[in-house]
Amino acid sequence: MTQETGSFAALGLSSPILHAITKAGYEEPSPIQAQAIPIIMAGHDMIGQAQTGTGKTAAFALPILSKIDPQRREPQVLVLAPTRELALQVAEAFETFASQMPSVSVVAVYGGAPMGLQLRALRQGAQVIVATPGRLVDHLSRNGDLLSSVGYLVLDEADEMLKLGFMDDLELIFQALPAERQSVLFSATLPHSIRAIAEQHLREPQHVKIASKTQTVSRIEQACIMVHADQKANVVLRVLEVEDFDALIAFVRTKQETLDLTSALQARGYKAAALNGDIAQNHREQVIESLKDGRLDIVIATDVAARGLDVPRITHVLNVDMPYDPESYVHRIGRTGRAGREGKALLLVTPRERRMLSVVERVIGQKIDQVQLPDAAAVLQARISKLQADLTPRMQAPNGQHKSLLERLTTTLDCHPEDLALALLGKLTEGMAFDVSGIEREYPVQEVTARPERNRSFERGERVERPERGSRERREHRGSPAMLVDQQNRVRCRTALGTRDGVAARNLLGAILNEGGLARDAIGRIQIRETFSLVELPEEGLERLLGKLKDTRVGGKPLKLRRYRE
Ligand code: ADP
Ligand code: MG
Fold it and tell me: Which atom from ligand 1 is nearest to the alpha carbon of 52?
């Protein structure tokens, strides 16, 4: 057993559960898990306050599964969740964690699915019921004894349940439960109504609160990209092509993901390695040394494995998976911007993680700008610039041997130098598309449509106020054309070079096209004044473009192009 799973072991969990955790690839308990598990194992009632994404499911599922009697085939655990989607997620998590407990089965009970199937699963002796309150009350009205053997009750996202109007249903459920039981309640917030429930239905509950301290991270440029969960790998591949990084560290949640992503990147020719809790100390040091001296450029790590990593070459932190608490976000991005240098941190956010994003923003006390995911045109542009950057120095210092080789080849192959150039380009760029649709096929990605966070009661199913639906969908629809307009937005940039410096529009244009690798039509109006000039450049990818142009000179003088703020 590894040292990290060991820290789960220290919490007193049963051995089938520890095996399941290892299989799931969890290395270390999240803060809420570390605090809640021992309390639940000890048999206390508990109130846990923590935000979304902090790992609450495992915080209650692991100890409860450790404690039930798998041989007793009757309901022993009841988890109440506000919506069908959350109930399904929790049920799935229970199944994962019970993977080494073959006699344990889990049933999800929610509205909108046939009662019959759910009933059958209940009769067959499922030990764990994960339910939405409304549907459970329907079952109770047919079978009042349904919950009489339950010894563990979990109220997950209690505040959401109350917001959805489940108060009365909860009261009915409490009445149907044995008084002799252990109850835990999780909630992001603890309004009066929740405290009242706890007071009435929990016994001397212990409180666990995962507080978030404000931390500052100023030298690091931060941005986030909305992605679909199943497209992260392709988004990562696109990001790596367009970002100009020296060394980069990518964070994922599990060991398996470190391995999967590493092989995907190696297959693309990146010098990448995985860093996770299974990797022995001496190998870990090797990986870090290689990252320091440039034998490696990318490390894919879990939070545990990357702790304390200090490599000044790291210019970028890519958060492929959301950290499970804001503090680890701060730790992660602190891997860049070392020794007073600048760094950049990118965070991939799936639609259901939007709320966690706002929590992180609150903790770091700043807004994380949302940027568009790199489109195929940007990837294409990056490929072309890279090719140019590779070739330019060689053209400036031609090699005599190569010249005679060229002559020899054109003679023996009886071809024009252009034919040879084409063949060489083909070889040089093997397996890489150089057109937008080819790149689209290479890394297919769908944009997440921009919309304000949906009302969860609407999104997730039960007890929905129907009249809202139409208006919301219309609003969403209007969102997308606006995005397209945004993509073509240009912003004005300023340079201190003007006619006084002998600069004309075509000089600026030439410099920006060549060094920035932009297409001509990407550049808007250019205005030349005596002491300065303004150039309209595409908003998308602007920082990257300005980065590329940072050492560009025009007429021998530094261009120093900056975003112009009117
Ligand atoms: P919450 O209920 O607090 O919103 P979840 O329980 O849904 O959070 O967990 C969020 C994600 O984090 C899930 O994908 C889960 O598998 C993962 N996760 C939870 N605990 C750990 C851990 N200790 N190590 C790695 N991943 C974890
Ligand atoms: Mg949850």
Answer: 4
Q: Which atom of ligand 1 sits closest to the CA of residue 58?
A: 6
Q: Tell me: do 418 and 550 sit in the same domain.
A: no
User: Does one domain contain both 393 and 505?
Assistant: no
Residue reference for tokens 């994380």:
368
CA of 235 to the centre of ligand 2 (A): 26
Give 403-425 pLDDT, tens digit per residue. 899 999 999 999 999 999 999 99
Is 60 exceeded by the pLDDT of residue 437? yes
For residue 310, name the pLDDT band (cuts at 50, 70, 90): confident
Residue 541 to residue 552: CA distance in whole angstroms:
17
Among residues 364, 356, 359, the alpha carbon closest in space to that of 214 is found at: 364
43 belongs to a structural domain: yes
| Inside any domain, residue 369 | yes
Lookup: tokens for 35? 């605090």
Q: Quick one: pLDDT at residue 340? A: 60
159 Cβ contact list (under 8 Å, min separation 6) = 187, 188, 189, 190, 191, 194
Ligand 1 pocket, residue 253 CB under 6 Å: yes
**How many domains are there within the chain?**
4
pLDDT at 207: 96
Of the pLDDT bands very low, low, confident and very high (cuts 50, 70, 90), residue 218 is low
CATH of the domain at 78: 3.40.50.300
Mean pLDDT of the chain, nearest integer: 85
Q: Does 475 share its domain with 544?
A: yes
Residues 368 and 384 reside in one and the same domain: no
Ligand showing the shortest atom-to-Cα distance for residue 55: 1
Q: What's the CA gap between 106 and 104, in Å, rounded?
A: 7
Is residue 215 in a domain?
Answer: no
In short, whether 238's Cβ falls inside 6 Å of ligand 1 is: no
pTM of the model: 0.51
Looking at the CA of 328, name the nearest ligand: 1
Range of the domain at 413: 377-442
Q: Which of 7, 57, 357 to mutate to test the pocket of ligand 1 (most atoms within 8 A of CB)?
A: 57
CA 53 to ligand 1 centroid distance, Å: 6
Q: Is residue 448 assigned to a domain?
A: no
Where among 209, 243, 268 does a domain terminate?
209
Amino acid 286 reads Q
Whether 333 and 369 share a structural domain: yes
359 and 410 inside one domain:
no
